[in-house]
Amino acid sequence: MKSIKDIDPPFATSPSRRAEWREYNNVDPSFLDDLNSRDSGFDSQTGCDPFTHAQGTVWELVPRDVRKKMFPHQREGFEFIWKNIAGGIDLDELKNSTSTGGGNGCIISHAPGTGKTGLTLVFLQAYMKLHPRCRPVIIAPRSMLLTWEEEFKKWGIDIPFYNLNKPELSGKENNGAVALMDNRKRGRGKVGLIRYVKLYSWKMGTGILGLSYRLFEKLVSGDELSGILLDLPGLFVFDEGHTPRNDDTCMFKALSRIKTRRRIILSGTPFQNNFQELENTLSLVRQEFGEVLRTVRKSGREISKAKHASLISSIGRCANHRDDEKLKELKEKIAPFVNVHKGTVLQESLPGLRHSVVILQPDEFQKRLCKAVEGVKSFVELNYCVSLLSVHPSLLPQQFFESFDVDSAKLARLKLDPEAGIKTRFLLILLELSTNEKVLVFSQYIEPLTLIMEQLRHRFNWREGQEVLYMDGKQDVKKRQSSINVLNDPSSQARIMLASTKACCEGINLVGASRVVLLDVVWNPFVERQAISRAYRLGQKRVVHVYHLITSETLEWDKLRRQARKVWWSNMVFPSSDGGGNDQTTASEPLEDKILEEMAQLYNNPSETLINAIIPQPKETELIETFGEFLNKSS
């Protein structure tokens, strides 16, 4: 077994890697020796024997007040996790089980915003009463780790949580290890010392370790760490478990080396782009499933190694047949370890959700630019240019000025004029009409967000941090949380938040906004679903209106077709255990959007056309059918 002094990271792989580990490189080796001398030699399973006095079912391990707070789908999920991870819910049977063997992984696919984090914490607290030293590890996107900390407080979980990505101590670390650290040098290497103390405290105590996917990948990149982060944990939780879905990445390969089979994936959207990615996600919780499904690449194409791989690869070809037997076979195979809740709790608890696909009509200049970029040979560049130009013409990348014969001076003059771009114009009008609501704007690119911020500053003299809030993936975590708090504060001056789609992962709560604008169309519809669920989630007090903005006659049309197909695939593979509903379904009664109706009336006349068409989406299935019908007519 590896001791605490054996957790030195690998420095010698490359200069860049050595730079990444500079904090560790400056840790005094004698500190590790002293820390190791305190190690009492517990192995990965010592102290994991279950309670002997507990009786009844696992619900006896959950405080009564916590049980009352749980929704029906959370209670179902709680038992589902126990049956997969431990083998059942009867305490007498669990007492006789061993913590070293058995156990399997599972996927909790509950709609975003329905309390997966809280459910998981209730399970972990109960599980650790039986197995107090099972050493759970939670791996999540970096920004989500702070959300986990908040959920620990919300649910009254008194288990220490050691966030390795956080440069400060939690206050619950091992006192002896902290004392040793305090006697060492400060400054360079301090972050590394703190991480060592957290690892030691987690190893020797009864706490939970948390770290980001990227940090986990880096920490296990050498053999020295195999005995700590790969072998010691008795349970892993992968939050947003669809994140490491590419089996060619170092991240996926690192996670595949984990020893324990007890793994829980939390994901409201496990199906992302295609069935190959789904296969990889499934293999993280059921290794034998992945081994059977694994394919090899030969001559640039995939060759199936087994019948299950053939099953996966064939679904995409025949997904138009609703009664497809192969799809049915796949659903039967994954049903025992995938628990699905589509979000009926949101329909029952929240005022409502209304989707509207808004087809916008650009002026001749913007239309000409959008048409010109269709000649771009690189598909990546084409997608990028269309997404930017559909928002505002001044966003045309400079390298295309000459080839498109564009007047750069004209673009510069138009830059601060939101009415020169069809989507910025729509947003401006929406802000003027929705004075009593906050607006949340998402884009997959930073350029449109920064442009809109400049335009709002120029037009209304709005200030960042007050009327305008901003969030992207590179933003400091504390600053991001501050912006979230301001948006959700009913008394704040905030009118709009401009957010990167990728920065708003599961768990981020933006219920202060009730108007959601999707500025561009992404290929993956579940990225949009995650974004919408930042506002449409438990705690929302208003009807949420979502605007999918589409610039007429552009590549965005094709994206809609692809989105509809992927959503259909996902719904077929992951039917809800509650018998219906989906995570972004509207209320049973049609919801009005008086602001959108007013926009259509005021700005559609013989002299100008803002909105070409509005496609309401009362239900997701109708959404798909409406897309297909409307787009086919328009093609």
Automatic annotation (TrEMBL):
Q: Pfam families per the record?
A: Helicase_C, SNF2-rel_dom
Q: What organism is listed for this UniProt entry? A: Citrus sinensis (Sweet orange)
Query: PROSITE patterns per the record?
Result: HELICASE_ATP_BIND_1, HELICASE_CTER
Its recorded name reads Uncharacterized protein
Ranges for the Helicase C-terminal domain? 423-615
Cross-referenced PANTHER family: SNF2 DOMAIN-CONTAINING PROTEIN CLASSY 2-RELATED (PTHR45821), SNF2 DOMAIN-CONTAINING PROTEIN CLASSY 4 (PTHR45821:SF5)
Molecular function via GO: ATP binding; helicase activity; hydrolase activity
Q: Which domain of life is it from?
A: Eukaryota
Q: Which InterPro entries match?
A: CLSY/DRD1, Helicase_ATP-bd, Helicase_C-like, P-loop_NTPase, SNF2-like_sf, SNF2/RAD54-like_C, SNF2_N
Every copy of the Helicase ATP-binding domain together lies at 97-288
